[in-house]
Amino acid sequence: MTAELKSLSASLTAPKLPDNLFTVTDIDAELSKVRDDESDFIAADFSRLICAETDFSAICFRNCLFHGCRFTACNFTGCTFIDCVFKGCDISNSDFSESYFKACSFISCKAVGTAFKYSFYKNVSFDGGSFELSDFQRSKLQSVAVTDTDFSSALFSSCEIKQTELKNVTLARSVFFGTKLAGLDFTSCNIEGLTVSDTGAELKGAKVDVWQAAMFAKLLGLIIE
After folding, report:
1. DSSP code, position 169
2. Which residues sit opposite 106 in a β-bridge?
3. Which residue ranges make up each domain of the chain?
């Protein structure tokens, strides 16, 4: 692993949040206002907000804090998130497809069954939490750091992954079909049951330990003596 990737998590730019944030209490009223004015949510504090099946599609969020929120089956398709923090949130079964994330962080969040497909991530960190059964198909990840996070049975098919660092990540039964894994270091991760194509071409250039290598060898039909 290169020195650049070793220091990636430390070198990522932290989301920029102003000292004074506007506290959102009536989300329906504020959302209606943003849509009517064709404006963005800027420097907003959405702490402890609870929403179910709310339509946030195509909204831009800048310098916003989501702390202890619960978004159940909400629609965030086509949204833009720049300098945003998600901390201790439950966004399970919501839809973030075709969204854009830049300089954002997800801290101890729950995103079980959440859709992130066709999305773009740059300078984004995932620290703790569960993203089981999440769907990142055909997404682009660039300068992303993932630490102590559960991505069991997640879908990463046909993704483009660059300058990404994985530390103690659970990727058991996750799917990377059609995704080049060159440059990724899986040695600290649980990749039991990870799925790639029959040829294993996706694994070229990935770093694994001896036990993980043996697992993939069996997957590819090799005999180790």
Report:
1. -
2. 86, 126
3. 3-219
